[in-house]
């Protein structure tokens, strides 16, 4: 039996502790009914398992809500503009969380400029841009992946 806090008896990190190299989880969304709801639930479950982002006062629930909202926006955008999402990937490390949503579309997203809050539609990328620390998109052989990253510490409005 180990006496190191946060580890299981076999030396693996216990619940709420990321292994030194981080952890990556993926969910296939292609063909699933209600992919937005399923992606939100999957993300919530992963963040709970990882206790992400943990700070001196515990998990930052506002940050968790930002991540879940961003996932919903990216999956919704894939449904509306790219024939549906293919996959959701969450990659957590002690320094950051990366969210990736892949779809079969080849057109890279671009935010509506200027952002007009009073006009219906066109707010998803504005949310992605403001909720995350970085975001972007990359083409690949099956379409594209839109990604966003959240710093664990030191990002906008967070303590270093």
Task: Let me know the largest β-sheet.
Answer: 5 strands, antiparallel
Total count of strands: 7
Radius of gyration: 17 Å
Q: Helical element count?
A: 3
Can you write the helix and strand succession as a string? EHEEHEEHEE
Question: How would you characterize the overall build of this protein?
Answer:
It contains three helices and seven strands, in the order βαββαββαββ. By secondary structure, the chain is an alpha+beta fold. Mean pLDDT is 84; it is low at 1-12 and 155-160. Helix 1 (35-50) packs antiparallel against helix 2 and helix 2 runs antiparallel to helix 3 (124-131). The strands form two sheets. It has a five-stranded antiparallel beta sheet, covered by helices on one side. Strands 2-3 form a two-stranded antiparallel ribbon.
Quick structural summary:
By secondary structure, this protein is α+β, with helices and mostly antiparallel strands.
